[in-house]
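Q: I'm building a small set of examples for a reading group on sequence design. Run inverse folding on the following structure and report the sequence directly after it, with nothing in between.
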């Protein structure tokens, strides 16, 4: 690799080319004329040109010096810009694409609010919501910009922020035989279930809690997404177990009833994660903050969950309140 010249010479060369004299450049650089004369000697050796030559009582730029002058100005300006702090974020003029990995529940619960905020505050931003796959955190290093969901242990170069923990509910078709029931554990276990799993697993913490009560459920079908589970529930007398906030949104759009799950299910955290490369990036920080604010706007619960309902106001975020608060494959 070719050895780089002393980059400290660049400001001096810029001053000499603009001033056209050693004395003028020395005054601008706040050094003595003799020091600037020595610097000019070094520059002549590096560039391979005299740069400034005697002309009457003063000095004149050589053709090479005149050729270099605009390039030196641009190079110095570029170097100074690279060493300055980033400019203040201007959302109105921001042009950026963010790749966000989410499941369909997250996309529906928070996606509409996030896209609405982007349209209002940063219309030049584009969101690319990618489906969950193997959930490899290493994807944050290059393939995706933000990961939202449940996460295990993360590598040292991945940062994350808790968004809370959310409960599950059961949904059933609104004109079904038990759409208005307050389920007991026995009744809950006796009904056919639809569970969501990308890995094909049938058993989960729900089965463990039922087993503690001496009960066992029948999983009629598994679905790869929560949206698919809703459509399966619409065409059957089975319960589909989905995140509560998603259940409420689904009940607003489909003839579904939302029922409480009569089990003491454990909490599971819900996080957003990103790579260290974008940790201090102003635009990425705005995106993370916007999502966190959207989640926080759900607020604490106003009251304990009631019986089965169709639609109604969205449930609130649960932070230490009674009742289930989970985000697990049920």
């Amino acid at each position: 690799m070719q050895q780089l010249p002393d980059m400290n010479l660049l400001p001096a060369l810029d001053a000499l080319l603009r001033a056209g004299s050693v004395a003028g450049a020395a005054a601008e650089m706040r050094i003595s004329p003799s020091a600037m004369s020595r610097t000019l000697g070094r520059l002549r050796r590096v560039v391979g040109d005299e740069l400034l030559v005697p002309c009457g009582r003063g000095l004149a730029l050589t053709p090479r010096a005149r050729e270099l002058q605009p390039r030196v100005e641009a190079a110095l300006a570029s170097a100074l810009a690279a060493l300055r702090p980033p400019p203040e974020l201007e959302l109105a003029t921001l042009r950026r694409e963010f790749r966000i990995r989410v499941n369909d529940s997250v996309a529906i619960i928070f996606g509409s609010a996030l896209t609405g905020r982007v349209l209002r505050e940063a219309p030049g931003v584009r969101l690319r919501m990618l489906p969950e796959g193997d959930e490899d955190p290493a994807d944050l290093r290059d393939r995706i910009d933000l990961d939202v969901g449940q996460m295990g242990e993360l590598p040292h170069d991945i940062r994350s922020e808790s968004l809370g923990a959310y409960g599950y509910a059961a949904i059933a078709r609104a004109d079904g035989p038990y759409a208005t029931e307050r389920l007991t554990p026995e009744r809950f276990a006796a009904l056919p279930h639809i569970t969501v799993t990308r890995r094909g697993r049938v058993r989960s913490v729900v089965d463990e809690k039922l087993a503690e009560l001496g009960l066992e459920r029948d999983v009629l079908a598994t679905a790869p997404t929560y949206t698919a589970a809703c459509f399966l529930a619409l065409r059957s007398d089975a319960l589909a177990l989905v995140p509560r906030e998603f259940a409420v949104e689904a009940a607003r759009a489909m003839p579904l009833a939302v029922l409480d799950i009569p089990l003491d299910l454990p909490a599971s955290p819900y996080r957003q994660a990103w790579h260290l490369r974008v940790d201090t990036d102003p635009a990425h920080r705005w995106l993370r903050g916007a999502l966190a604010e959207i989640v926080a706007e759900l607020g604490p619960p106003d009251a304990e969950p009631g019986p089965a309902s169709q639609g109604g106001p969205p449930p609130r975020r649960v932070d230490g309140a009674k009742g289930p608060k989970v985000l697990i494959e049920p």
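The CA atoms of residues 10 and 76 lie 7 Å apart.
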